[in-house]
Amino acid sequence: MRTYLDCLPCFFRQALETARRVTGDAKTHREVLDRVASVIPDLPLDATPIELGREIHRVVREATGVDDPYREAKRNDNDRVTAWLPRLRRAVASSRDRLLTALKLAAAGNAIDLAIASRPDLRAAIERAQKEDGEMVDYPLFLERLQRSDDVLYLGDNAGEIVFDRLVVEQLVERGKRVTFAVRGRPILNDVTVEDARYVGMDDLAEVIASGSDGPGTALPLCVPEFLDRFERAGVILSKGQGNFEGLSDEDAPLFFLLKVKCPVVAAELEMDIGTIVLRSRARPPERGEQDRPAVRAQDAGRRVHR
Amino acid sequence: MRTYLDCLPCFFRQALETARRVTGDAKTHREVLDRVASVIPDLPLDATPIELGREIHRVVREATGVDDPYREAKRNDNDRVTAWLPRLRRAVASSRDRLLTALKLAAAGNAIDLAIASRPDLRAAIERAQKEDGEMVDYPLFLERLQRSDDVLYLGDNAGEIVFDRLVVEQLVERGKRVTFAVRGRPILNDVTVEDARYVGMDDLAEVIASGSDGPGTALPLCVPEFLDRFERAGVILSKGQGNFEGLSDEDAPLFFLLKVKCPVVAAELEMDIGTIVLRSRARPPERGEQDRPAVRAQDAGRRVHR
Predict the structure, then answer these.
(1) Alpha-helix residue ranges (DSSP H) falling in chain B
(2) What is the SS3 assignment for B127-142?
(3) Which of A146, A228, A214 is nearest to A183 (CA)?
(4) Which of A18, A165, A297, B43 is the most buried (most CB within 10 A)?
C-alpha cells in the first residue's frame, strides 16, 4: 500500500517513542522530532509506509547514535513467550484443527502488547483462538494452496511474537513442508532479526534468512536478491503483521496476510474494523474516489478534535 | 500546562483533519502538512498547547485560504443538541441534585462525539449523569465557593456542547448568580464563538463575552484586557473542556475544570485515566523527574509500536 498523510503523525509518535527508549535527555528527544520534521517535505507518498518508516528510523539513529534501541526489550519478550510455549503447545495439541489454532494463536501473538501483557491476557488469547473462527476467512484457500506446495515462505514480524509463530511452523513441518523463515536485514523497532530467530530456536525448524529489508516490514525494493528469488518462487507466503502487509499488499504473489488490524489506514485498506484478527489472501482491490484519503469508516472518521 | 513532544503528532492530525474538511484536494493536504512540519523546529515547548495550536491553525488557514472550516459542522451540532434540550431539562428537573446533574450532563456533552452521536448515546449520557458521582470530586468545594460569590465566569468549549452548558447556566441563574459566558475570539476548530453563543440563546441567560483567544482554548497571553479583568476579579471560574484546561491549568485563580480526559498528556497532568469525566479545582502540583515526559501511566506507556 502507498503511504497516507495519516501515517505522518504516526512517524512522529514512533520516532518519539524510540528516542525516549534510548535516552532521557529532553533535548535529544526534541532534536529527533525536529529532524523528522525536516524530512517530511521530501517523503514520496507513493512509496510504502515501510520505505518511509525506514527513512524516519534512519533519522532517529543518526540523531541518537543508537543502533538497536529495542535490543533488551526484544530479548525480554522472547524469554517471556518462550516460557509460555509448553502451555501454547498443549492448546494446539488439544484442539480439533491444530493448524488453524496455531494460526489463530500466532495472530493473537501479534495482538498482545507484550510490554504490558499478563497471564490473563495469554489465557484470553488461547481461549479466543480455540473458540472464534469468523475472521480467518481465507483459511480454506490457504489449505488448498498448501496442498499444492512443498514449501512455505514465512515472513516474521516482531520479537516475542516469533515464539507464537513457532506454533505454525511446527504444524507446517509436521505436514512435511519445508519452511523458510524470513526476518529483517537489520534491527528496527522490535522487529525480528536473524539473532532473534536463532535465540528462539526457529533455525531448528526452518531455514532462517534475512530479507535484507531495513524498514519496519518487508518491502521488495528494500530486499536482497537472495530473498527476492525465494519470494518469486514461493508457492505459499505467510506474511505476518501490519508491517509486512503495508509493504506487500500490492504485490502479485501467493500471499496470505495474518495480522491484527491496528490502525485506521490498514483498517480502511482491508475494509475491516480496528482490532480484527485476519487471515486474508492479498488485499482487496482499491476503489477510491479521493486520491489522498483512505476509506476510513464512520467510527474512525469522527472528528477526533480532542478538545 | 506546557506543551509535550507528544502533542506534535496531534498537531499534525488536527491540521490534516482540518485540511480535509476544507478541500478534497490531496495536494493541498500535503502542502498543509509540509508547512506544519516547517514550523515545528520553531515551536517553544514552554508555551501551552493552546498557544502552539493557534500557530498550527494559523498555518492551516494560510495554506488553505479558509477562515472557518467548521462553520457548518458547528451549526449542525448546535441544532442537534438544541433539539435534545427539552429532554435534557427534564432529566435535570427530575434529579435530586439539579446543579450536580447539570454539571455531569455538561461534562457528558464534552464527551459525546456529536458527529457520530445517536439517540442511544444521549440516553446513556443522561443515565450516567443521574447515577454516577465518583469523578466530580471537587463538587463540595465548588458549592462552597459558589456560596461566597455572586457571579460566575463560565469558559465555553465546543459547539453543540454549549447547549449542554446551558443546563448549568440555567441552574446558576436560578440560584441568583450572574453568569458571564466567555467564548473564543475567532473561529478555531469547532470551538464556540459569540455567534454560536447567540445562536443557542446563551445571551438570554448570561452576558456573553469573547476572551479574545484565537487558540483552541483559553490561554491568558492570547486574551484581551476586558476578559483578563473579568478573569482576575471572578469569584468562581468554571472552565469547560480539555482546551481550556491545557491553557489554564497553571494559573492561580478560583478555577474549576469540568472535562472529559481525552489524551494521555492531560491524563498524566491530572493523574486520571483517559475517558474519565472530572470536576477538579486547579491541577495537581507537578512532581516530575524527567523534564520532557508526562507521567504517562502504564497502560498508555506500552510500546504502541503498531506493527
Answers:
(1) 7-22, 26-39, 49-64, 71-93, 98-111, 119-131, 139-147, 161-174, 194-199, 225-233, 241-248, 264-270, 298-301
(2) HHHHHCCCCCCCHHHH
(3) A214
(4) A165
From residue A187, alpha-carbon distances to A67, A106, A192, A215, A217 in Å are: 7, 21, 7, 9, 11
B302 touches chain A (CB under 8 A): yes
Q: pLDDT, tens digit, for every residue of A223-261?
A: 999 999 999 999 999 999 999 999 999 999 999 999 989
Q: What is the pLDDT along chain B (307 residues), one digit of tens a residue?
A: 999 999 999 999 999 999 999 999 999 999 999 999 999 999 999 999 999 999 999 999 999 999 999 999 999 999 999 999 999 999 999 999 999 999 999 998 887 766 666 777 777 878 877 776 657 889 999 999 999 999 999 999 999 999 999 999 999 999 999 999 999 999 999 999 999 999 999 999 999 999 999 999 999 999 999 999 999 999 999 999 999 999 999 999 999 999 989 899 999 999 998 888 899 997 544 444 444 555 444 333 334 444 5
Which backbone phi and psi does A153 adopt, to 5 degrees?
A: -100, 120
As a dihedral over the C-alpha atoms of residue A109, residue A114, residue A118, residue A120, rounded to 10 degrees, the angle is: -20
Check residue B251 and report its DSSP letter.
-
Residue B144 to residues A46, B141, B172, Cα–Cα distance (Å): 60, 5, 14
Q: Which of B116, B190, B217 sits opposite A298 (nearest CB)?
A: B116
DSSP, collapsed to helix, strand or coil, labels residue A281 as strand
Q: How many CB atoms lie within 10 A of CB A201?
A: 12
CB B276, CB B261: distance < 8 Å? yes
Handedness of CA A141, A143, A145, A148 (dihedral sign): negative
B14 in reach of chain A (CB within 8 A): yes
Distance separating alpha carbons of residues B176 and A250, to the nearest angstrom = 66
Could you tell me the CA-to-CA distances from A140 to A114, A146, A257, A294 in Å, in that order?
A: 30, 10, 14, 29
User: Could you tell me if B213 lies within 8 Å of chain A, comparing CB atoms?
Assistant: no
User: In this structure, are strands A178-183 and A207-210 parallel, antiparallel, or unpaired?
Assistant: parallel
Amino acid at A96: R
Length of chain A counted residue by residue:
307
State the pairing for strand pair B255-260/B277-281: antiparallel
User: In this complex, is the C-beta atom of B264 within 8 Å of any C-beta atom belonging to chain A?
Assistant: no
What ipTM describes this predicted complex?
A: 0.83
Closest CB from A6, A26, A41 relative to B291? A26
Across the strands, what pairs with B183?
Answer: B210
In the structure grid, which three cell numbers stand for residue A102, read together?
A: 496455531
Task: List chain B residues with CB under 8 Å of A30.
Answer: 5, 45, 292
